[in-house]
Amino acid sequence: MYDAAVLIGRFQPVHNGHLALLREALARARQAVVVVGSAFQARTPKNPFTWQERAQMLRAALPEPERARLTMLPMRDYYDEPRWADAVRQAVAQATPARARLALVGHFKDSSSGYLRAFPGWDLIRMERQGTIDATAIRDAYLGASASTPEAALAPWAPHIPAATRAWLEQFAHTAHYPALQEEWRMLRAYRNSWACAPYPPVFVTVDALLRCQGRVLLIRRAHAPGKGLWALPGGFVEPHDTLWQSCLRELAEETHCPLPEERLRQALRAVRVFDHPERSQRGRVITHAYFFDLDDDALPEVRGGDDAAHAQWVAQEQLAGMEDQFHDDHWHIIGQLLAPG
Protein backbone atom coordinates (compact mmCIF):
# COMPACT_ATOMS: atom_id res chain seq x y z
CA MET A 1 0.00 0.00 0.00
CA TYR A 2 1.40 3.36 -1.05
CA ASP A 3 1.08 6.45 1.13
CA ALA A 4 -0.23 8.37 -1.86
CA ALA A 5 -1.01 7.71 -5.51
CA VAL A 6 -0.86 10.68 -7.86
CA LEU A 7 -3.20 11.14 -10.82
CA ILE A 8 -2.45 13.97 -13.26
CA GLY A 9 -4.97 15.19 -15.81
CA ARG A 10 -7.06 18.02 -17.17
CA PHE A 11 -10.42 16.21 -16.85
CA GLN A 12 -12.11 18.42 -19.47
CA PRO A 13 -14.61 16.90 -18.72
CA VAL A 14 -14.41 13.88 -16.39
CA HIS A 15 -15.13 10.57 -18.14
CA ASN A 16 -15.06 6.91 -17.13
CA GLY A 17 -11.43 6.53 -18.21
CA HIS A 18 -10.44 9.17 -15.67
CA LEU A 19 -12.64 7.49 -13.09
CA ALA A 20 -10.98 4.10 -13.65
CA LEU A 21 -7.56 5.67 -13.03
CA LEU A 22 -8.83 7.43 -9.93
CA ARG A 23 -10.32 4.24 -8.51
CA GLU A 24 -7.01 2.47 -9.11
CA ALA A 25 -5.22 5.24 -7.21
CA LEU A 26 -7.65 4.87 -4.30
CA ALA A 27 -7.25 1.09 -4.32
CA ARG A 28 -3.45 1.25 -4.25
CA ALA A 29 -2.87 4.05 -1.73
CA ARG A 30 -4.17 5.59 1.46
CA GLN A 31 -4.48 8.95 -0.27
CA ALA A 32 -5.21 9.91 -3.88
CA VAL A 33 -3.60 13.17 -4.96
CA VAL A 34 -5.24 14.57 -8.09
CA VAL A 35 -3.23 17.19 -9.96
CA VAL A 36 -5.75 19.22 -11.94
CA GLY A 37 -3.90 20.70 -14.92
CA SER A 38 -4.56 23.92 -16.85
CA ALA A 39 -5.92 25.20 -13.55
CA PHE A 40 -5.84 28.96 -14.02
CA GLN A 41 -6.60 29.33 -17.70
CA ALA A 42 -9.41 31.46 -19.07
CA ARG A 43 -12.39 29.48 -20.32
CA THR A 44 -11.78 28.24 -23.87
CA PRO A 45 -13.10 25.33 -25.97
CA LYS A 46 -10.03 23.35 -24.87
CA ASN A 47 -10.37 24.37 -21.20
CA PRO A 48 -14.06 25.14 -20.75
CA PHE A 49 -14.30 24.33 -17.05
CA THR A 50 -12.49 25.85 -14.07
CA TRP A 51 -10.36 23.62 -11.88
CA GLN A 52 -12.92 23.93 -9.09
CA GLU A 53 -15.67 22.70 -11.43
CA ARG A 54 -13.56 19.74 -12.52
CA ALA A 55 -12.73 18.91 -8.89
CA GLN A 56 -16.46 18.98 -8.19
CA MET A 57 -17.09 16.55 -11.08
CA LEU A 58 -14.46 14.14 -9.76
CA ARG A 59 -15.78 14.21 -6.20
CA ALA A 60 -19.38 13.80 -7.35
CA ALA A 61 -18.46 10.66 -9.31
CA LEU A 62 -17.23 8.87 -6.14
CA PRO A 63 -19.02 7.47 -3.08
CA GLU A 64 -18.83 9.75 -0.04
CA PRO A 65 -16.24 7.67 1.92
CA GLU A 66 -13.77 7.78 -0.97
CA ARG A 67 -14.08 11.56 -1.38
CA ALA A 68 -12.48 11.99 2.03
CA ARG A 69 -9.27 10.41 0.71
CA LEU A 70 -8.95 12.84 -2.21
CA THR A 71 -6.58 15.79 -2.28
CA MET A 72 -6.99 18.19 -5.20
CA LEU A 73 -3.95 20.19 -6.36
CA PRO A 74 -4.59 22.87 -9.00
CA MET A 75 -1.61 23.24 -11.35
CA ARG A 76 -1.07 25.97 -13.92
CA ASP A 77 0.35 25.44 -17.38
CA TYR A 78 3.95 26.65 -17.49
CA TYR A 79 4.61 25.88 -21.18
CA ASP A 80 7.92 24.49 -19.89
CA GLU A 81 7.85 20.80 -18.92
CA PRO A 82 10.86 20.74 -16.53
CA ARG A 83 9.49 23.75 -14.66
CA TRP A 84 6.00 22.22 -14.61
CA ALA A 85 7.31 18.88 -13.31
CA ASP A 86 9.23 20.65 -10.53
CA ALA A 87 6.06 22.52 -9.54
CA VAL A 88 4.10 19.23 -9.45
CA ARG A 89 6.76 17.55 -7.29
CA GLN A 90 6.81 20.46 -4.85
CA ALA A 91 3.00 20.59 -4.58
CA VAL A 92 2.76 16.82 -4.01
CA ALA A 93 5.53 16.95 -1.39
CA GLN A 94 3.63 19.62 0.52
CA ALA A 95 0.40 17.60 0.37
CA THR A 96 1.86 14.27 1.53
CA PRO A 97 3.81 13.09 4.62
CA ALA A 98 7.59 13.41 4.67
CA ARG A 99 9.33 10.48 2.99
CA ALA A 100 5.98 9.21 1.72
CA ARG A 101 5.99 6.25 -0.64
CA LEU A 102 4.50 7.65 -3.84
CA ALA A 103 3.11 6.15 -7.01
CA LEU A 104 1.94 7.71 -10.26
CA VAL A 105 -1.15 6.26 -11.95
CA GLY A 106 -1.58 6.65 -15.70
CA HIS A 107 -1.53 5.18 -19.15
CA PHE A 108 0.42 6.07 -22.28
CA LYS A 109 -2.34 7.25 -24.62
CA ASP A 110 -0.23 9.19 -27.14
CA SER A 111 2.57 11.78 -27.26
CA SER A 112 0.67 13.89 -24.72
CA SER A 113 1.36 11.18 -22.11
CA GLY A 114 5.10 11.83 -22.07
CA TYR A 115 4.75 13.67 -18.77
CA LEU A 116 4.51 10.26 -17.05
CA ARG A 117 8.27 9.92 -17.55
CA ALA A 118 8.97 13.19 -15.73
CA PHE A 119 8.78 11.66 -12.24
CA PRO A 120 11.47 8.94 -12.05
CA GLY A 121 11.35 8.81 -8.24
CA TRP A 122 7.73 7.65 -8.20
CA ASP A 123 6.60 4.11 -8.97
CA LEU A 124 4.50 4.02 -12.14
CA ILE A 125 1.20 2.14 -11.92
CA ARG A 126 0.57 1.69 -15.59
CA MET A 127 -2.98 0.92 -16.75
CA GLU A 128 -4.34 0.02 -20.12
CA ARG A 129 -6.41 2.62 -21.91
CA GLN A 130 -10.11 2.30 -21.10
CA GLY A 131 -11.62 1.76 -24.56
CA THR A 132 -11.60 4.72 -26.95
CA ILE A 133 -12.81 7.35 -24.51
CA ASP A 134 -11.53 10.80 -25.44
CA ALA A 135 -12.36 14.08 -23.70
CA THR A 136 -11.69 16.01 -26.91
CA ALA A 137 -14.45 14.15 -28.74
CA ILE A 138 -16.83 14.71 -25.83
CA ARG A 139 -16.08 18.45 -25.86
CA ASP A 140 -16.58 18.61 -29.62
CA ALA A 141 -19.97 16.91 -29.36
CA TYR A 142 -21.01 19.09 -26.44
CA LEU A 143 -19.87 22.44 -27.82
CA GLY A 144 -20.97 21.61 -31.35
CA ALA A 145 -24.56 20.98 -30.27
CA SER A 146 -27.35 23.43 -30.98
CA ALA A 147 -28.40 25.60 -28.07
CA SER A 148 -31.35 23.33 -27.32
CA THR A 149 -29.77 19.90 -27.82
CA PRO A 150 -26.74 19.43 -25.52
CA GLU A 151 -28.37 16.39 -23.88
CA ALA A 152 -28.94 14.75 -27.28
CA ALA A 153 -25.38 15.55 -28.38
CA LEU A 154 -24.02 13.79 -25.29
CA ALA A 155 -26.29 10.75 -25.71
CA PRO A 156 -23.75 8.68 -27.75
CA TRP A 157 -21.19 9.32 -25.01
CA ALA A 158 -23.54 8.60 -22.11
CA PRO A 159 -22.08 5.11 -21.42
CA HIS A 160 -18.64 6.69 -21.06
CA ILE A 161 -19.50 9.63 -18.79
CA PRO A 162 -20.38 9.38 -15.07
CA ALA A 163 -24.00 10.26 -14.39
CA ALA A 164 -22.93 13.11 -12.10
CA THR A 165 -20.80 14.59 -14.91
CA ARG A 166 -23.66 14.35 -17.42
CA ALA A 167 -25.98 16.13 -15.00
CA TRP A 168 -23.37 18.82 -14.41
CA LEU A 169 -22.85 19.37 -18.15
CA GLU A 170 -26.58 19.65 -18.75
CA GLN A 171 -26.82 22.34 -16.06
CA PHE A 172 -23.78 24.19 -17.41
CA ALA A 173 -25.49 24.42 -20.81
CA HIS A 174 -27.93 26.89 -19.25
CA THR A 175 -25.20 29.32 -18.18
CA ALA A 176 -23.94 32.33 -20.17
CA HIS A 177 -20.57 30.61 -20.57
CA TYR A 178 -21.95 27.86 -22.82
CA PRO A 179 -23.01 29.93 -25.89
CA ALA A 180 -19.80 31.97 -25.66
CA LEU A 181 -17.73 28.78 -25.71
CA GLN A 182 -19.79 27.44 -28.60
CA GLU A 183 -19.14 30.60 -30.62
CA GLU A 184 -15.41 30.25 -30.08
CA TRP A 185 -15.50 26.52 -30.83
CA ARG A 186 -17.21 27.18 -34.17
CA MET A 187 -14.69 29.87 -35.07
CA LEU A 188 -11.73 27.61 -34.31
CA ARG A 189 -13.28 24.69 -36.19
CA ALA A 190 -13.82 26.86 -39.28
CA TYR A 191 -10.29 28.23 -38.96
CA ARG A 192 -8.74 24.76 -38.92
CA ASN A 193 -10.99 23.57 -41.75
CA SER A 194 -9.72 26.43 -43.91
CA TRP A 195 -6.26 24.84 -44.09
CA ALA A 196 -7.22 21.19 -43.56
CA CYS A 197 -6.31 20.30 -47.16
CA ALA A 198 -2.79 21.69 -46.95
CA PRO A 199 -0.11 19.00 -47.50
CA TYR A 200 1.31 19.78 -44.04
CA PRO A 201 -0.19 21.58 -41.05
CA PRO A 202 0.91 25.22 -41.35
CA VAL A 203 3.17 26.97 -38.87
CA PHE A 204 2.04 30.53 -38.19
CA VAL A 205 4.35 33.36 -37.20
CA THR A 206 3.15 36.21 -35.03
CA VAL A 207 4.55 39.17 -33.12
CA ASP A 208 3.58 40.67 -29.76
CA ALA A 209 4.60 43.93 -28.12
CA LEU A 210 5.07 44.39 -24.39
CA LEU A 211 5.36 48.07 -23.42
CA ARG A 212 6.12 49.07 -19.85
CA CYS A 213 5.92 52.65 -18.65
CA GLN A 214 5.82 54.04 -15.11
CA GLY A 215 5.32 50.53 -13.71
CA ARG A 216 2.38 49.81 -16.02
CA VAL A 217 2.01 47.54 -19.03
CA LEU A 218 -0.03 48.15 -22.15
CA LEU A 219 -2.79 45.59 -22.72
CA ILE A 220 -5.69 45.19 -25.08
CA ARG A 221 -9.08 43.54 -24.78
CA ARG A 222 -9.60 41.21 -27.72
CA ALA A 223 -12.59 42.19 -29.85
CA HIS A 224 -13.08 38.85 -31.62
CA ALA A 225 -12.77 35.11 -31.11
CA PRO A 226 -10.57 33.40 -30.22
CA GLY A 227 -10.23 34.97 -26.80
CA LYS A 228 -12.98 37.53 -27.28
CA GLY A 229 -13.05 39.82 -24.23
CA LEU A 230 -9.77 38.53 -22.79
CA TRP A 231 -6.68 40.59 -22.07
CA ALA A 232 -3.74 40.20 -24.43
CA LEU A 233 -0.60 41.88 -25.64
CA PRO A 234 -1.03 43.95 -28.80
CA GLY A 235 0.14 41.83 -31.70
CA GLY A 236 -0.82 39.70 -34.64
CA PHE A 237 0.29 37.78 -37.69
CA VAL A 238 3.35 38.74 -39.71
CA GLU A 239 2.42 40.19 -43.09
CA PRO A 240 4.04 38.52 -46.13
CA HIS A 241 6.12 41.56 -47.05
CA ASP A 242 6.97 42.80 -43.53
CA THR A 243 9.91 42.03 -41.33
CA LEU A 244 9.18 40.96 -37.76
CA TRP A 245 10.07 44.46 -36.57
CA GLN A 246 7.77 46.11 -39.09
CA SER A 247 4.94 43.77 -38.16
CA CYS A 248 5.41 44.55 -34.48
CA LEU A 249 5.23 48.30 -35.06
CA ARG A 250 2.23 47.93 -37.37
CA GLU A 251 0.23 45.79 -34.92
CA LEU A 252 1.07 48.11 -32.04
CA ALA A 253 -0.13 51.14 -33.98
CA GLU A 254 -3.28 49.44 -35.33
CA GLU A 255 -4.44 47.99 -32.02
CA THR A 256 -3.48 50.77 -29.57
CA HIS A 257 -2.89 53.92 -31.68
CA CYS A 258 0.30 54.33 -29.65
CA PRO A 259 1.83 57.59 -30.93
CA LEU A 260 5.48 56.80 -30.18
CA PRO A 261 7.88 57.20 -33.12
CA GLU A 262 9.96 54.28 -34.29
CA GLU A 263 13.18 55.84 -33.01
CA ARG A 264 11.84 56.05 -29.44
CA LEU A 265 10.75 52.43 -29.59
CA ARG A 266 14.20 51.40 -30.81
CA GLN A 267 15.73 53.20 -27.83
CA ALA A 268 13.29 51.49 -25.45
CA LEU A 269 13.77 47.95 -26.81
CA ARG A 270 15.16 45.69 -24.06
CA ALA A 271 14.61 42.15 -25.32
CA VAL A 272 13.16 39.96 -28.04
CA ARG A 273 12.07 36.46 -27.05
CA VAL A 274 10.59 33.60 -29.04
CA PHE A 275 7.71 31.63 -27.52
CA ASP A 276 7.12 28.41 -29.41
CA HIS A 277 5.46 25.83 -27.16
CA PRO A 278 3.39 23.55 -29.45
CA GLU A 279 0.28 23.97 -27.26
CA ARG A 280 0.46 27.73 -26.73
CA SER A 281 -2.35 28.51 -29.17
CA GLN A 282 -5.59 26.74 -30.04
CA ARG A 283 -5.39 28.06 -33.61
CA GLY A 284 -2.66 25.55 -34.37
CA ARG A 285 1.14 25.79 -34.38
CA VAL A 286 1.85 29.46 -33.66
CA ILE A 287 5.34 30.81 -32.97
CA THR A 288 5.46 34.34 -31.64
CA HIS A 289 8.27 36.86 -31.33
CA ALA A 290 7.68 39.08 -28.31
CA TYR A 291 9.32 42.53 -28.20
CA PHE A 292 9.82 44.11 -24.76
CA PHE A 293 9.99 47.90 -24.64
CA ASP A 294 10.69 49.75 -21.38
CA LEU A 295 9.79 53.43 -21.48
CA ASP A 296 10.96 53.95 -17.89
CA ASP A 297 9.41 57.14 -16.47
CA ASP A 298 8.27 58.71 -19.75
CA ALA A 299 4.82 60.26 -19.79
CA LEU A 300 2.21 57.56 -20.42
CA PRO A 301 1.35 57.60 -24.14
CA GLU A 302 -2.35 58.01 -24.82
CA VAL A 303 -3.84 54.84 -26.25
CA ARG A 304 -7.19 53.59 -27.55
CA GLY A 305 -8.34 50.32 -29.04
CA GLY A 306 -8.47 49.71 -32.75
CA ASP A 307 -8.54 46.93 -35.37
CA ASP A 308 -8.77 43.62 -33.45
CA ALA A 309 -8.67 45.37 -30.06
CA ALA A 310 -11.92 46.48 -28.46
CA HIS A 311 -10.01 48.44 -25.83
CA ALA A 312 -6.44 49.42 -24.95
CA GLN A 313 -5.35 50.24 -21.41
CA TRP A 314 -2.30 50.76 -19.23
CA VAL A 315 -2.52 48.27 -16.32
CA ALA A 316 -0.47 48.50 -13.14
CA GLN A 317 2.15 45.77 -13.04
CA GLU A 318 1.20 44.71 -9.50
CA GLN A 319 -2.33 43.89 -10.66
CA LEU A 320 -1.17 41.25 -13.13
CA ALA A 321 -0.68 38.47 -10.57
CA GLY A 322 -4.43 38.25 -9.98
CA MET A 323 -5.39 38.34 -13.66
CA GLU A 324 -4.06 35.00 -14.93
CA ASP A 325 -7.49 33.58 -15.76
CA GLN A 326 -8.38 36.68 -17.78
CA PHE A 327 -5.60 36.35 -20.39
CA HIS A 328 -5.62 34.97 -23.91
CA ASP A 329 -3.39 31.95 -24.68
CA ASP A 330 -0.02 32.22 -22.88
CA HIS A 331 0.22 36.02 -22.79
CA TRP A 332 0.22 36.12 -18.98
CA HIS A 333 3.28 33.83 -19.01
CA ILE A 334 5.00 35.89 -21.72
CA ILE A 335 4.64 39.02 -19.59
CA GLY A 336 5.90 37.19 -16.51
CA GLN A 337 9.01 35.91 -18.27
CA LEU A 338 9.87 39.22 -19.93
CA LEU A 339 9.41 41.20 -16.72
CA ALA A 340 11.22 38.71 -14.48
CA PRO A 341 14.20 40.28 -12.68
CA GLY A 342 17.55 39.58 -14.27
UniProtKB/TrEMBL annotation:
Keyword Transferase in annotation: yes
SUPFAM superfamilies: Nucleotidylyl transferase, Nudix
UniProt key word Cytoplasm: no
Ranges of residues in domain Nudix hydrolase: 202-341
GO molecular function, one term: nucleotidyltransferase activity
UniProt entry keywords in alphabetical sequence: Nucleotidyltransferase, Transferase
InterPro entries from the UniProt entry: Cyt_trans-like, NUDIX_hydrolase-like_dom_sf, NUDIX_hydrolase_dom, Rossmann-like_a/b/a_fold
Entries under Pfam families matching the protein: CTP_transf_like, NUDIX
Highest taxon listed in the record's lineage: Bacteria
PANTHER family, sorted: BIFUNCTIONAL NMN ADENYLYLTRANSFERASE_NUDIX HYDROLASE, PHOSPHOPANTETHEINE ADENYLYLTRANSFERASE
Protein name per the record: Cytidyltransferase-related domain protein
